[in-house]
Amino acid sequence: MAQAQVPHPPLEGAQLVIGTIAVSLAVFMNVLDTSIANVSIPSISGDLGVSSDQGTWVITSFAVANAISVPLTGWLTERIGQVRLFMASIILFVISSWMCGLAPTLPFLLASRVLQGAVAGPMIPLSQTLLLASYPRAKAPMALSMWAMTTLIAPVAGPILGGWISDNISWPWIFYVNIPVGIVAAAATWAIFRNRDSVIRKAPIDGVGLALLITWVGSLQIMLDKGKDLDWFSSTTVVVLALTAVIALAFFIVWELTAEHPVVDLSLFSKRNFTGGTVALSIGYGLYFGNLVLLPLWLQTDIGYTATQAGLVMAPVGLFAVLLSPLTGKFLPRTDPRYIATASFLVFALCFWMRSRYTTGVDTYSLLAPTLIQGIGMAGFFIPLVSITLSGLPGNRIPAASGLSNFVRIMCGGIGTSIFQTAWDHRTIMHHAQLTEQANAYNPVFDHSMQQLGATGFSQPQAFGLFNTMATQQAAQLGVNDLFFVSAGIFVALIALIWVTKPERAGGDAGAAAAAAH
């Protein structure tokens, strides 16, 4: 973000420690909320009386609101000041978290999550700005590595904490835990940074572009979320939403390419490195996040895992990610980032291929092994791709490039969740129909199985009911396996996009790069 900042000396001693902890707590709270609800969807859905696929709107509503607010960070910073905006973001995040916990109905919860996602947008890029300004330039890599550790640990802690809270307390507390953390972060931030704010000026805002952005992104996400319930394009509502999204997107592209102060600088897509890096990063993130929601949901609804157990299955992804990320940062300047990104995508493909071979009797080791290996891919996922995306851009364009790349990535995360949920339902229905086609008296295997069940004391309706339950579980298993297999294939195909780019060896802006990465 282009900010006119007053030059402040680096922090020292206790002030530096407290400032780092304050910023890290805010980031931890923010990133935690992108994953803490994933394993709690069945609990939330059951308590509010809605289906699990409606429950996933709790995740997508946050992601979309977050994506829309990110491009506004630069403008808001110039109008309010980076410290005041960061403080306001933390305080409003705490208030919206409290509202989420109090939610008596799904619409109230979704509205609260939209507010939470919107106010969370500026928090991560501004945390990066404040942290880098607190350290001497020579120690910027250390500051970034500490910041990256926080953003890697939070998604791992989210499913574990969310699962334990859902099983042992109640789901509202996955939001209430933000309140004490946010209060401490806000108090410490104000104590350390209140006299280190940026210069405020009246910057112009692209109101038309912002309205079009909200219209097309919101229409697209609502269409994806409601499509299954409304039977897709046989519904007038879905058709209207689709047309609205397409028309608003077309006007948005034309407007942003001609506006004097665009909210999103779409001309960046004329750069090969930016386009290849952003598309590969965003689709890869959409696949990763969609599977991050799908796996615990499948474990709880079809395999009989508790929320805590599902969270623990997701936990090992952070082990190698935390251990290897500093090494990635160390070796990146010495090697071609395309090699590291390619290796990362191959690791992701391997993990999803391993998961595509799951059965309904899957054991704990088979669940944990791919998750553990996935951490290796995570360590080489963000940093090299952001390095490629920003490669060759002049310094004055890096803030806009960071914001746009971040916007596309977060949006793809929300869309990926909706697509995976819908695709799983469709594949499950298809497989269930194929399995029950075999349930007839002319199939000797099925007939023999029914006779055996009858011999053990089952009535015919009970025997058919048992078969249907087993077929439903098996259909869900086959459906989730299909999505894992397709994800593996897409990750392999995305490698071609990585090699379309030609990254230039340059110093770049580490702070902007890390902000874009997260």
UniProtKB/TrEMBL annotation:
<feature type="transmembrane region" description="Helical">
    <location>
        <begin position="483"/>
        <end position="501"/>
    </location>
</feature>
<feature type="transmembrane region" description="Helical">
    <location>
        <begin position="339"/>
        <end position="355"/>
    </location>
</feature>
<dbReference type="InterPro" id="IPR004638">
    <property type="entry name" value="EmrB-like"/>
</dbReference>
<feature type="transmembrane region" description="Helical">
    <location>
        <begin position="83"/>
        <end position="104"/>
    </location>
</feature>
<dbReference type="InterPro" id="IPR036259">
    <property type="entry name" value="MFS_trans_sf"/>
</dbReference>
<dbReference type="Pfam" id="PF07690">
    <property type="entry name" value="MFS_1"/>
</dbReference>
<feature type="transmembrane region" description="Helical">
    <location>
        <begin position="367"/>
        <end position="390"/>
    </location>
</feature>
<feature type="transmembrane region" description="Helical">
    <location>
        <begin position="144"/>
        <end position="165"/>
    </location>
</feature>
<feature type="transmembrane region" description="Helical">
    <location>
        <begin position="16"/>
        <end position="37"/>
    </location>
</feature>
<feature type="transmembrane region" description="Helical">
    <location>
        <begin position="171"/>
        <end position="193"/>
    </location>
</feature>
<keyword id="KW-1003">Cell membrane</keyword>
<dbReference type="InterPro" id="IPR011701">
    <property type="entry name" value="MFS"/>
</dbReference>
<dbReference type="GO" id="GO:0022857">
    <property type="term" value="F:transmembrane transporter activity"/>
</dbReference>
<keyword id="KW-1133">Transmembrane helix</keyword>
<protein>
    <submittedName>
        <fullName>Multidrug export protein EmrB</fullName>
    </submittedName>
</protein>
<keyword id="KW-0472">Membrane</keyword>
<feature type="domain" description="Major facilitator superfamily (MFS) profile">
    <location>
        <begin position="19"/>
        <end position="506"/>
    </location>
</feature>
<keyword id="KW-0812">Transmembrane</keyword>
<feature type="transmembrane region" description="Helical">
    <location>
        <begin position="205"/>
        <end position="224"/>
    </location>
</feature>
<feature type="transmembrane region" description="Helical">
    <location>
        <begin position="305"/>
        <end position="327"/>
    </location>
</feature>
<feature type="transmembrane region" description="Helical">
    <location>
        <begin position="279"/>
        <end position="299"/>
    </location>
</feature>
<keyword id="KW-0813">Transport</keyword>
<feature type="transmembrane region" description="Helical">
    <location>
        <begin position="236"/>
        <end position="258"/>
    </location>
</feature>
<dbReference type="InterPro" id="IPR020846">
    <property type="entry name" value="MFS_dom"/>
</dbReference>
<dbReference type="GO" id="GO:0005886">
    <property type="term" value="C:plasma membrane"/>
</dbReference>
<comment type="similarity">
    <text>Belongs to the major facilitator superfamily. EmrB family.</text>
</comment>
<feature type="transmembrane region" description="Helical">
    <location>
        <begin position="57"/>
        <end position="76"/>
    </location>
</feature>
